[in-house]
Amino acid sequence: MSEPARNRRERHSRETIRRMIRDAALRLFVERGTSSVSMGDIAERVGVTRANLHYHFGTKGAVVEAVFSEHLQDVEAAYRAIWLDENSTLRQKTAATAADCRARFYRFNDGPRGTRPWSLSGQARFGGEQLPDPVEHTLQRFSKALERCVRSAVKQAVVRGELRPDAPVESIVLLLTANIYFGPPITQYTGGIARLERHFAATAETVMAAYGT
Fold it and tell me: Out of 55, 69, 88, 209, which could bridge 92 as a Cys pair, Cβ 3.0 to 4.6 Å?
């Protein structure tokens, strides 16, 4: 038996509101950190009552967990698409990651020298906040997944002959992932997005100069 039209509309309405709540909370958490954002702040940004917010998520902790889980899944998917692409070179993967960071930077900054936070994971790592254990586990899982993707790309570059067989895979992984992890403070404190893009380009140039074939 098919779902009644009224039930479908109600379900879609609930999903739409939950999506609006998660989107608003994500932006607030990136801008201000989770500890500085209240349920009232989120409700005001969405344009719903606090009672409505509690109806959909129950607690602020549930909002935080939902936002981190969904957002980091999206970011991981984007990085998997970049770093596991068998048709691009290591240098191209690095450039594509810099472009992804640039796009996310401009979601929160109006110009290239903007100093606003733009990364949820960056805000969590460098904001000095106490996060719920499930969120900490989500961040750790994300970091391990990212490093696996980059490690796979570096190993592939060795197999394809882009890098010499003696290239230190783990050291190169550390160099490449550091730009991702420390991208937010680089843009905030050392010159905006152009500075981060130079970091990515310099890392790729150095790796290729040292170990490229």
Answer: 88
